[in-house]
Design a protein that fits this description.
The complex is a heterodimer. Chain A is α/β, with parallel strands linked by helices. Chain A has eight helices and ten strands. The chains are: A alpha/beta, B alpha+beta. Chain B: InterPro entries: ABC3_permease_C, MacB_PCD, Macrolide_Exporter_MacB. Chain B: One of its GO terms (cellular component) is plasma membrane.
């Protein structure tokens, strides 16, 4: 489903060159729930950004459904992100000036979907995350856990096949973190959504199918969770 | 999508009240000035009473005689020239010959009243759309008989007769008594072809008819059967001028005169050499002036917009992540800016209505009725859109280039 081939990402300034990712080769299968772990600065988020077509690798290539995206235009990439990928960020990145339901409608704005249909699908996504009672609220009126649930609903609204979650429980306490993790697990198990999640939390990572570990920009381990536990 | 954009634009405006105030003040003030100028322009050149059918009207108000050794003189044509050559033109529907207005004194209740008087033929009333409040214009018979009758404007009527009857009453202008037969709405002084306080038959000036010089103190107003006849009329007029120039080959005199629309007449008088109407140049100058006038507030608005949009880099990142292309982002911010500009335009429109009312009341422009009609509104709207686009496109373009990851990093929580 998502294939990374010989990915390298190097950040260059006038005086320094930082290797964020080095020769990463990865294939994520349809329906997998993959967690990516590693210390801060090891390249986890960079990996997720490259997988989500938000960032370009310095070398190597990304393929979605076997199709390399290297030559895709800005418009083609935007369309691919819109239709295939949903993002969940650690800091939610909700739009403060829009209500909960308007935030959730966001991915559908960039499709040919009528206003009525957009609203219907946004409300359905909010129901999935248990936030039907907060549709008219604004992000500032919600708790961290609720904001993250809105962010998940937004990622779901477009019915994407892949969800990329960058430390979705990183800003939450353990109870709220578990709630968010339950939602993601349900999505993966019941709806077959492919999820790649960056996390610092071993406890959360162990709930997923596959665990990939990174260190200094290099993929140092890739194992099924059952094996990892053993 | 548009609703979503407008919703967020409105929320941003309310959230950043100071920025909003500065932006709206700049936009509304700029547009107010431009709309006042547009209204003035429309007042002078647009189809206004009594010159409503401007697309069918041509005016002759100047004739230039060029003789050898670079000597030339110009001014309004003579009655002789207009009556003999212009009145006999075949292409127009009607031609009117009338005098340039002159100031004369009148006394009423021992009070001096300075009035502008104009001598006209009967065609003058047929060509122009004066709004008669009382009575009627003078006709062919009164002109032929040189009857001492007058049409006066409503201000003169008020000054003379107050609330009493005016028709059939006598006014004394420059020691000549006239019987009032009609009262018309005031005509603004900027309509120099038709403006006066008192209009009387042209034949009362018959002593000037004998002067066979080409220049004098008269204008002609020509009405075409249809707008498409205008070029033919100009052609016929040019032919007449060539004939007049060749009347006396020994004199080697060149005569220049043109039947112009109102705008052409203005452009030729103030910008042209006399031979060219320079309308294109006039419009270019006006567009340039408007552009330069808008430039400073536009730059200001561009800066405000950039800082306003910078604060929303997280939003840009999120929108990109969820499928907005760079062009979509540009579209969003341009729409938002046009919305802000239209809001400023509405304020500017209201402000300009106030300023125009002040100008009208002040009497700076005699009998002016500057107003905000549909034409001025349409121009105002166009200016708003141009202003909104100019000030919105650059910041939107700059911000749309922002890399999604960078944008997300710069965002707030």
């Amino acid at each position: 489903m998502i294939q990374l081939v010989d990915i390298e990402k190097v950040y260059r300034t006038k005086t320094i060159e930082t290797v964020a990712l080095s020769r990463v080769n990865l294939f994520v299968e349809r329906g997998e729930f993959v967690s990516v772990m590693g210390p801060s600065g090891c390249g986890k988020s960079t990996l997720l950004n490259i997988m989500g077509l938000l960032d370009d690798p310095s070398s190597g290539h990304v393929a979605i459904y076997g199709q390399p995206v290297k030559t895709h235009s800005d418009k083609q990439l935007a369309r691919l992100r819109n239709e295939k990928i949903g993002f969940v960020f650690q800091s939610y990145h909700l739009i403060h000036d829009l209500s909960v339901v308007d935030n959730v409608e966001l991915p559908l704005l960039y499709r040919n979907v009528s206003a009525g249909e957009r609203r219907k699908r946004a409300l359905a996504a909010l129901e999935k995350v248990g936030l039907s009672a907060r549709t008219k609220h604004f992000p500032s009126q919600l708790s961290g856990g609720q904001r993250q649930r809105v962010a998940i609903a937004r990622a779901l609204a477009g019915n994407p096949e892949i969800i990329l979650a960058d430390e979705p429980t990183g800003n939450l306490d353990s109870v709220m973190g578990d709630e968010i993790m339950d939602i993601l697990l349900r999505l993966n198990q019941e709806e077959g959504t492919t999820i790649v999640m960056v996390t610092h939390d071993e406890h959360m990572a162990l709930k997923t199918n596959r665990l990939i570990r990174f260190f200094d920009g290099q993929q140092v381990a890739d194992s099924m969770v059952v094996e990892a536990q053993i | 999508m548009l609703k979503n954009y407008l919703k967020i634009a409105w929320a941003v405006l309310l959230r950043r009240k100071f920025f909003t105030f500065i932006s709206l003040f700049g936009i509304s003030f700029t547009l107010m000035v431009l709309m006042v100028v547009t209204s003035l322009f429309d007042h002078v050149f647009g189809p206004q009473m009594p010159e409503r059918e401007t697309d069918r009207l041509l005016f002759v108000n100047n004739l230039r005689e060029e003789q050898g050794e670079g000597y030339s003189s110009s001014g309004p044509p003579s009655y002789y020239f207009l009556n003999r050559y212009v009145r006999r033109m075949q292409t127009p529907e009607k031609v009117s010959v009338h005098s340039v207005f002159t100031q004369v004194n009148s006394y009423i209740h021992n009070k001096k009243l300075a009035l502008d008087i104009k001598h006209t033929d009967q065609q003058f009333w047929e060509i122009l759309d004066f709004h008669f409040l009382e009575g009627n214009p003078f006709g062919a018979q009164e002109v032929k008989n040189a009857s001492r009758v007058a049409v006066i404007n409503q201000t003169t009527r008020k000054n003379y007769f107050g609330a009493g009857p005016a028709l059939g009453q006598t006014i004394e202008v420059d020691q000549v008594k006239y019987r009032v037969i009609g009262v018309v709405e005031d005509v603004p002084v900027l309509r120099i072809q038709s403006y006066a306080d008192v209009w009387v038959p042209i034949t009362l000036k018959s002593q000037e008819f004998k002067d066979t010089g080409l220049r004098g103190g008269y204008f002609a107003t020509i009405k075409a059967r249809q707008a498409s006849d205008i070029p033919k009329i100009k052609e016929e007029y040019a032919h007449i001028i060539r004939q007049v120039s060749q009347l006396d080959p020994k004199e080697k005199k060149q005569v220049h005169s043109y039947p112009d629309t109102i705008v052409e007449s203005f452009a030729r008088s103030f910008l042209g050499s006399g031979k060219e109407d320079k309308v294109g140049f006039l419009y270019t100058m006006l567009a340039l002036a408007a552009f330069l006038f808008m430039l400073l507030p536009t730059i200001n608005l561009v800066n405000i917009n950039i800082s306003r949009i910078m604060e929303r880099s997280s939003e840009i990142g999120v929108r990109k992540a969820f499928g907005a292309s760079s062009n979509t982002i540009i579209g969003q911010f341009v729409v938002e800016n046009v919305f802000l500009t239209l809001l400023g335009g509405v304020l500017g429109f209201l402000l300009s209505a106030g300023v125009l009312a002040l100008i009208n009341d002040s009497g700076i422009i005699v009998y002016s009725q500057l107003g905000l009609n549909l034409r001025v509104f349409a121009w105002g709207l166009l200016l708003c859109l141009v202003f909104g686009l100019i000030s919105g496109v650059y910041p939107a373009f700059k911000m749309s280039r922002l890399h999604a990851v960078e944008a997300l990093r710069g965002g707030s929580k």
